[in-house]
Amino acid sequence: MNWNSWFLLYVIGNILYNINKSNPKPLSNRGFKVLLFVFGLGLLSYPVAMDPTNTIYKYLKLPFIPNHNALWHGLGCLLVFMAVENSLFLKNLLTNKILCWFVKISYSIFLTHFLVMNSWASFIFCKLINH
């Protein structure tokens, strides 16, 4: 049987939503919420551009799921959202003013970095071609 990863995420999301809707505070243990958050971040770090056979992620390869990236990244997002939704500590941590300010400027830093690095690489390439 060949499962579509997006369909699995839809089903898992519906199940988690119904659990959270029926019991507004399903997660009462603070340590479990933080563990859920960290495990979600670990799933979000599943490699996209490389083969995971020589990494710890080789154990996450399932033969009946064609798109591992979508499944593990989506499941990681669901776990992170579920942990943050039920944890005042994580909400306060992620809405910190310094962190929010950094998030606001990070895209401009990325664009500036991209332009500077590409300009520098082009300059070096032109200098090497002339030799």
How many domain modules? 2
Distance between the termini: 59 Å
- Number of DSSP strand runs: 0
Shape: flat
Multimeric status of the protein: single chain
Structural class: mainly alpha
Fraction of residues in helices? Answer: over 70%
Give the percentage of residues in beta strands: under 5%
Task: Please mark out the parts with pLDDT under 50 across 5 or more consecutive residues, or reply none.
Answer: none
Query: For the CA atoms, what is the radius of gyration?
Result: 20 Å
Largest sheet: none
Give the overall average pLDDT.
79
How many helices? The count is 5
N-to-C order of helices and strands:
HHHHH
What would you say this structure looks like, in words?
There is one protein chain. This protein folds into 2 domains: 90 residues, no CATH class; 36 residues. 70% of the residues lie in helices and 0% in strands. The chain is built from 5 helices and no strands. The longest helix is centred in the C-terminal third of the chain and has 34 residues. The chain is flat and about 70 Å long. The N and C termini lie far apart (59 Å). 9% of the residues are buried. The model has no long low-confidence stretch (mean pLDDT 79).
Can I get a quick summary?
The protein has helices at 5-22, 30-44, 68-85, 88-94, 97-130. It has five helices and no strands. With 131 residues, it is mainly alpha-helical.
Walk me through the topology.
Layout: H1 5-22, H2 30-44, H3 68-85, H4 88-94, H5 97-130
Helix pairs in contact: 1-3, 2-3
